[in-house]
Amino acid sequence: MNLASAQVIGAGLAAIGIGVSAAGVGNVFASFLEGALRNPSAADGQQGRLFIGFAAAELLGLIAFAVAMMILYAPPADESVEVVAVEAAAVDAPAAMEAPEAAPAE
After folding, report:
1. Angle at 22 (CA atoms; ends 72, 39), nearest 5 degrees
2. Domains along the chain?
3. Is the pLDDT higher at 81 or at 71?
4. Which of 19, 10, 103, 104 is nearest to 57 (CA)?
5. How many CA atoms, within 13 angstroms, populate the side-chain half-sphere of residue 56?
6. Which phi and psi angles does 79 have, rounded to 5°?
7. Which of 35, 72, 79, 83 meets the CB 3.0–4.6 Å disulfide criterion with 11?
8. What is the distance between the alpha carbons of residues 16 and 63, in angstroms, rounded to a whole number?
9. What percent of the chain has pLDDT over 70?
10. What is the DSSP letter of 43?
11. Is the pLDDT of residue 83 over 80?
């Protein structure tokens, strides 16, 4: 599997959160409407909680969308930095691995 297809599959899986967010917003408003129809006098006191639930559900959807876009459009990691670090360690390794000079025997 190449990188492009893995990115598209990952973005599609991350985008599932957008649909779940839409279902959450629908659930919040449905519950509020059901409660308001059962007890109309208490509906005004619950309106603040309605907006908090709406904002929380929408935030999760926006985060899922942002993750999906980052998966699709973020550049791949630059591996040259790791290669340079490994090469520098390989250059320094022989000097560090040398055996200490033995003291002359008397």
Report:
1. 160
2. 3-97 (1.20.20.10)
3. 71
4. 19
5. 10
6. -85, -10
7. 72
8. 11
9. 71
10. T
11. no
